[in-house]
Specification:
single chain, 11 helices, alpha/beta, 6-stranded mixed sheet
Length: about 325
């Protein structure tokens, strides 16, 4: 064997060893995530709409990926605590954020300095159709009854909703404006449980919230929905008209989604996006959303980012109009 042939064989063996050594590492980098539990931050206490959705999401993600996805409740500061928690986390895929449209409101209100642009969108989970709800024994049997009373007695009726400056509060203010009525809007800091208690206790005449915030009372016949904020009737509440059907040019269909810290490794991002999409399109997820009268709704990272961009601009305008924008912004 010539010296040239020996050198050639040595180089062949060297490159073969390099390739063999690289293959396991490459495969591992693509398949090892997650190697430990994943935290999903929620800016509200247990039992609320976002908490319900996040827990269902975690259960299905755990089954798909073989590691626990755990809800971490960080209530307070209008859910700003959860956003700050995400921004302090490493971009390794082990800390995620499940949040509704409040992510597009808090920067303008001065609660946080971050926007969607500082994060990595994963995708959306569901779409809401907020409802105007009264007790079953209320004198208001239809939405028309309620709005006629509001016009006859301006400033008399009280309507409860979620915390000041939140998506439901702003939507309700927009509804009141477009319906040309004068009612007392009473935000609460206690989410669905607080709203339900205020209606049951007679402290308000109606509440405006997502269906899953009052799902037990609606299914039990304790509450009835007068109108829906959807662009069309909910498939789960077919007898409930939309506000547009009763002559009010108003709709609100907020999305809830999942985000991660910016800078995720590409393979981790792909696993999260693909698995989340699989979960949201699964029969189990549709069963969950159906049981809570919400609509399963998936859009991926790019479309979700565009949605958040447009939503941020929308809420900047609305918050400024109602005087809730931070004057320094």
């Amino acid at each position: 064997m010539t010296r040239r042939m020996v050198l050639r064989n040595v180089w062949i063996m060297f490159f073969a060893m390099v390739l063999i050594a690289a293959l396991p590492f490459h495969a591992q980098s693509k398949t090892s995530y997650p190697e430990k539990p994943v935290q999903v931050l929620v800016g509200y206490g247990p039992g609320g709409g976002t908490d319900q959705v996040a827990r269902a999401y975690c259960e299905l993600m755990s089954k798909e990926l073989g590691k626990k996805f755990l809800v971490i409740n960080l209530p307070g500061a209008a859910s700003a605590n959860s956003i700050n928690g995400l921004m302090e986390a490493d971009p390794d895929g082990y800390t995620l954020l499940c949040i509704p449209s409040t992510i597009s409101m808090l920067p303008t209100m001065g609660y946080v300095q971050y926007t969607y642009a500082d994060m990595q969108p994963i995708g959306t989970l569901d779409m809401g159709m907020p409802l105007l709800i009264v007790k079953k024994d209320s004198k208001f049997k239809t939405a028309e009854d309620f709005f006629n009373e509001a016009k006859k007695n301006p400033g008399k009726l009280k309507v409860g909703t979620a915390y000041a400056g939140g998506q439901f509060h702003l939507a309700l203010l927009d509804l009141v404006k477009k319906a040309n009525i004068n009612v007392i809007v009473l935000p609460t800091a206690h989410g669905g449980s607080g709203l339900n208690a205020s209606l049951l206790g007679g402290h308000v005449d109606a509440i405006y919230c997502d269906a899953n915030e009052a799902i037990s009372q609606l299914k039990g016949g304790i509450f009835i929905a007068l109108a829906s904020s959807g662009t069309e009737r909910s498939p789960y509440l077919k007898d409930v008209p939309t506000f547009k059907e009763i002559g009010i040019n108003f709709s609100s269909t907020p999305l809830r989604g999942v985000l991660a810290p910016k800078g995720l490794p590409e393979d981790v991002l792909k696993i999260l996006v693909d698995t989340t999409q699989k979960v949201v399109n699964s029969p189990k997820w549709n069963e969950f959303t159906g049981n809570t009268y919400r609509i399963s709704h998936w859009i991926g990272p790019k479309d979700y980012e565009q949605y958040l961009k447009e939503e941020l601009e929308l809420y900047r305008v609305l918050l400024t109009e109602v005087g809730l924008a931070d004057s320094k912004k």
